[in-house]
Amino acid sequence: MKQVIVGHRGVAGHCPENTKVSVQNAIDMGLKWVEVDVQPTKDEILVVCHDHTIDRCSNGQGRVDDYTLEQLQQLDFGSWFDATFKGEPIMTLASLLELAHQHQLSLNIEVKIDRQNVAHVAQNLKTQLDNAQLPPSSILLSSFSHGIIRELHQHCPGYALGVLSERLSKADWQLLEEVSAFSCNLNYRWVSEKHINALHDKGYQVWCYTVNQPEKFKHLAIVDGVFSDFPERFLG
């Protein structure tokens, strides 16, 4: 199987992360996969945003879930990266799913929840995925939270799950088996050849983040996928 190159938050090295322009850049680059982060607004609309606050990536302040979607759409999520992206709006999961359908793009959706009702968010996500025109085979759901992964396993049957971790732990191994995970997504800085081989032996794929300098990842040739802010460095 050919190694999967995943655009991290779209193409975060060239565009404001997790925005439509960033995902479109990945599409224009010829990528088949992008990774994004999803969480709910105050009115329970799933939007694409990594941090639980909007301070870093917009001209606003405060928590995502303290704003309604309409309020968030008044803010600028592009200028922080570069003035040429001024006015770039926040992206909803619904608009992302439509864009992905139009371009046969596969998505790794990382679910980011801290104080929300996890089961409710998982059910909301399932409803949106089922209403989209994307085949389940083009979706990978992931999270660092073991609680979230368990809820996704319960509420989103038929969708592949990826267990995210900085370093592979005993608890990660237990969860991988419990939810019949598709992959273990690990920090490339800490992953070992021994762990990669052990995961492969158990039938799990190994995807590593966030690899921006291919020559610095000594296990690059034996992993199944890599996430990168500069995916063009892996193409060709």
Structure, described:
- It contains 7 helices and 10 strands.
- With 236 residues, the protein is of the alpha/beta class.
- An 8-stranded parallel barrel has the order 1-2-5-6-7-8-9-10.
- The relative contact order is 0.15.
Overall pLDDT score: 97
Structural class: alpha/beta
| Biggest sheet character | 8 strands, parallel, barrel
Which residue ranges are poorly predicted, with pLDDT under 50 across at least 5 consecutive positions? none
Kindly report how far apart the N and C termini lie: 16 Å
Order of helices and strands: EHEEHEHEHEHEHEHEE
Helical run tally = 7
Helix content: 25-40%
Q: What is the chains' assembly state? A: single chain
Give the percentage of residues in beta strands. Answer: 15-25%
Number of strands: 10
Rg (C-alpha, Å): 17 Å
Across the major sheet, the strand order is: 1-2-5-6-7-8-9-10
Protein name: Glycerophosphodiester phosphodiesterase family protein
Domain GP-PDE: 3-236
Pfam families: GDPD (PF03009)
